[in-house]
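Each record in this resource describes a single protein on a pair of labelled lines. With that in mind, the following record should read easily:

===
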Amino acid sequence: MHITPFAVEQWMNAYETKCEYNLAETCVASLTLRELLDLAGEEDPLAPLQDRAMTYGDIVGSDRLRGLIAGLFARQSADNVLVAHGTIGANALVYQALVGAGDVVASVTPTYQQHVSLPEALGAQVRQVPLQAKDGYQLDMDALAQAAKGAKLITVVNPNNPTGALLSDRQMQDVVAIAAGNDAYLLADEVYRGTSQTDPIQNPSFVDMYPKAISTGSMSKAFALAGLRLGWIVGPKDVLAQAEHHRDYTTISLGILNDHMACLALDHADKILARSAGIVRENHAIVTDWIAGQNHLSWVAPHAGTTALLQYSGDRPSHDLAVDILAQTGVLVTPGSALGAEGTLRLGYANHPAVLRAGLPRLGDFLAKACPL
């Protein structure tokens, strides 16, 4: 199967270990293992594993883990959950289960490239529905309705990566109505759910609103535990059954340690999400104050998520600009070209506040010279 190289992952693979200040990171500042174990508040949180044989884990995820994941939603049960290798693995399984040659997929862009390139590689026709800065990156429902005609699957990332746009409850209902009108599945990549700038920190999920909706997510972003490489699909049982067939060829099971550590975290989801809310909201304010003094930059302030697109003056290619920024300042950002958003730089702002405070002045000083008005 031919597939287009994954531009943003190739960028990160090449540069993320070569920077002094990583402002391309998309996860909330990662928890350490010690912090997670302390959070569990147990005398020995690893005790249940000490006498357990290190064989394959539960194939679909332990009952405990799937029950805790289901608890993140309003109307789901453990039977509606399949554990996967991160959100990226979950999304891949959904596409493999549902999409084939000749199918139509409507995908809201800019987005994580997986939601365009993977269905294309599977032979689908992908109709992109672009978000525009001039519209505040708000979804054009008429454009979505047009693209969704005859679609088997509609895909949204909510909160959106890279713009940080968040659909309102009414907009979510409109998306559901469009999906229902076409009898289409709705794949909602909700990996950034739990990072809203306003309460509640967790926005509603599409999977609780529509019988043919599928939610994917993971421990990586709001839960600050990307190192567990643990994600999930929540959705109709028939879709999970098809996804499980494909999973048998790739993942088999996740590790026992990963499953257990995710359970420890989800047992204290409220504490972790409160920590994440504190970080993303403090850092959002830091970036807001900083960008107010940058005459050569503009943005649409994100409503959720951990990333924002910075529009810069001039016409330099974003890839070349980002390479020069790294070489001359030690600051890593992501070129918009890797996300289908040329003329922008993606800023990841959910890292430790000290990193953001140190990196932003360097970035601003460089761009003031490199991108004259």
User: Anything to note?
Assistant: The mean pLDDT is 96. Residues 296 and 369 are 9 Å apart (CA to CA). The chain is about 40% helix and 15% strand. The chain has two domains: 7-32+270-370, 45-268.
